[in-house]
Structures are given as C-alpha cells and as structure tokens.
C-alpha cells in the first residue's frame, strides 16, 4: 500500500533498475538497501531525487510494506497530513525546502521525526540544499534533519543526460540517435524531468506518424 495525497501519483517508470546516473550510484544503493532509518537526500533540480525516492516507495510497497509519499511542492498539502504517519514502515517527504520557515510545517515535521524514531520506522527527506543551508526557524527540526545519513546527488552532465535518454528510449522500444539527443540538449529545457517528458512525447509522435526520430522530424514536433 502506498498512501498518497489526493490527485498525486507515482511514476511507474521510477525504478532503481532504470536509474542510470553512475555518479550517484552510491546514493541509489544506500536507499535501496534500506540499512539507514533516517536519510536526507539533497541535490539540484534534475539530479534524480524524486526518481530515487519514488523508486524506493515502489520497492517497499511491492514488498508489502505500508508507505507514505508526500511531495511538498504540490499545492494544497497541510501539516495535519503528517498525523499518524508513524504507523507506516516508510515515509518519504519530497522537497522539504518548499515548507521551511513555515512554523506549522516545521513543528509537524519535528514531531514526525520523533514519532518515527520511537516507532522504528524509516523516514527519507529530500531537498535542494544541505541541511545546514536550509532557512529553518525551528532549531530542534534543524537538529533532526542531521540525524542519520546525508546523501548528496550531483547534477548530470550532457554525456550522462544523453545516456539516460537513450536508455529510456531503449526501454520504451525505440532508439534515440546520438545526434537527435544532442539536438534536444541544445534546443530544449535541460533538466531531466523536462527531457524525459519530451522523450515520451516524441515516442508517441513517432508511433502516430510511423516515422523514426530524426532531427527534421523532431523539429516539426517542437
């Protein structure tokens, strides 16, 4: 079971098997092996934080563990949603930096840490900066964020982004020529989330038009 806020879903494509960032392999292994009760995962946008924590949620739910996933960038979420979360085997708080400085959220997160510790449950938190760099007003929460293991993800360079896109294309049953991938990196938004969404659109367009991905064809789609 995965408990999600209304209207929020996990990407079926988010698995450990299709996480293709060699530079961040240690972080992936630390998450997938599940030896740490508390993990703080941080890195720039597009480094793969959400992919990894959603893969962790899928893995644990497939194993029969109750899981809760809260992406705090989504609008409409309230601190009261954290009440009772300690009953889960795993709770993932994605993008905690979206609510730092907000007293109700900071208090609720502080209590969640304590309750998860007492329950022996796992808590994984993601952010775009290291714990000490977040603008946290509640000192006790700042100390809790330093519990456990802190993992930093590095941003992917162009070669890594191209490799990820080509691996994703292969998994979907088509090939992304190197020159087309390089064209996308030069002409489109460069964060991985946007690139993967674009790849899915190109795949659908290719199937619809029964055409291979070439630069002229991609230009007509863009």
Question: What do these coordinates show?
Answer:
- It is built from 8 helices and 6 strands.
- A 6-stranded parallel beta sheet has the order 1-3-4-5-2-6, with helices on both faces.
- The protein is elongated and about 55 Å long.
- Helix 3 links the parallel strand 4 and strand 5.
- It has 222 residues and is of the alpha/beta class.
- The model has no long low-confidence stretch (mean pLDDT 91).
Brief summary:
The chain has 222 residues and is α/β, with parallel strands linked by helices.
Topology:
Elements: E1 2-3, H1 25-33, E2 38-42, H2 49-62, E3 67-71, E4 90-94, H3 103-119, E5 122-127, H4 139-145, E6 149-152, H5 158-171, H6 178-187, H7 192-209, H8 215-221
Parallel strand pairs: 1-3, 2-5, 2-6, 3-4, 4-5
Largest sheet: 6 strands, parallel
User: Which blocks of ≥5 consecutive residues have pLDDT under 50?
Assistant: none
- Determine the structural class based on helices, strands and strand pairing: alpha/beta
Number of strands: 6
Task: Report strand %.
Answer: 5-15%
* Whole-angstrom Rg: 19 Å
Oligomer: single chain
Helical segment count:
8
Order of helices and strands: EHEHEEHEHEHHHH
What is the residue-averaged pLDDT? 91
**Which term fits the overall shape?**
elongated
Distance between the termini: 39 Å
Strand order of the largest sheet: 1-3-4-5-2-6
Helix content: 40-55%
